[in-house]
Amino acid sequence: MTDATLGAQPIPLILVKPNQIADHCSAAQSAWVKATGFRADRGAACLLPNDDGGIDRVLVGRGKRLDTWLLGDLAQTLPPHPYTLATAVTPAEATHLGLGWRLGQYRFNRYHDRPPSPTAELILPTQADTAYIDAAVEATYLARDLITTPANDMGPAQLEETAQGLAVTYGADLTVIAEGGLEVQNYPLIYAVGRASVNAPRLLDLRWGDFADPKVTLVGKGVCFDSGGLDIKSAQGMRMMKKDMGGAAHVLGLALMIMKLNLPVRLRVLVPAVENSIAGNAMRPLDVLPSRKGETVEVGNTDAEGRLVLADALWEATSEQPELLVDFATLTGAARVALGTELPAFFCNHGETAAAFQTAMQSGDDPLWQLPLHQPYRELLNSKIADLSNISSGSYGGAITAALFLQEFVKPDIPWIHIDVMAWNIRSLPGRPEGGEAMGIRSVFELIRQRFEGELGV
Pick the catalytic residue: 307, 336, 449, 451? Predict the structure, then answer.
């Protein structure tokens, strides 16, 4: 908010249906509405003038439901004044509307030397859950910033700095295993993927919470740039690979939410942070690599590296028998072909957990879609000389076979959710500008909150 608007009287926002427009207008304002062609389309705004030439109120088309994205464009499109919601809403609706407005204020300005222009401010209704809004916004902004930052400024070391910052802020402990230490401490797949880069690979291990609380472990793919390795990508295929650490950005953002809102869980976050580069010591096609689990993996394609680093991290995650294990990864183009870029795919090995997740995502305007862990496809990962291959022998069902590969490194008695996410908006939508994006973290947060707060009677 600018100095000029500090202390200014908030301008009312009134949510209307088409047949309610006249109820909120004087005769002169009705003529103005007609002249502007305002029809109360969902999210559309009409500024009504007062007698002094200022803004008297703003009419906003309300649509069929008051969801998170209804006001998502207004922070950028309305004049930079304070506004207040002048329509009766429930606490949940107030929270959704306030969250969408705040998410719509986001801008990535790191590389601009010009100051950002001010955005409009919404004074949140008193019934809104401001603590939740603040946490969700901070988490989303963090993920967006990490994903959008180019690889020259967002390598494994910078991911470590981010995790260290969270640890200091929220009283967590961070352990880092880097470079040759990965070999010594038996993370061979992480080391093999990252060893060819001048930016040393590492495993980030963040822990927070009371030891007596239920264990929740998050794993995020942190491939800070993916050249494809010796199976090098095309120029077009490599263009967006700064976002291949999107899984890491998601789990760090989600961890921020969990810690900031003090959920009653014992949280562990594992991020294998690497760069998949080309050099004389890069892993080669058809190399056979050991894994932390002890199974050997044939490298059918060096561009299927994300599942390799996740395999070691997931097997370590299972060593503590968490009550819930969730991984995020920008893993396959096949998931995007199946569901598009805006709907993440998820897989789950536990029917009750999958059902609870479906319930949790109903309240947050943060959808995902379940795909099956279709076991007959597991044989497509067979290798003639190793325990398994990192790619399928067929060209179909790539999201499923990638998930089945990861399942090999998860103990079957641990409830596990794998989320295959785009982590990028290819178009701007209300509250979701083009660029790096957090997808699914609010739904996972809600699953954790519902499951473990209820379990402990909080």
Answer: 307
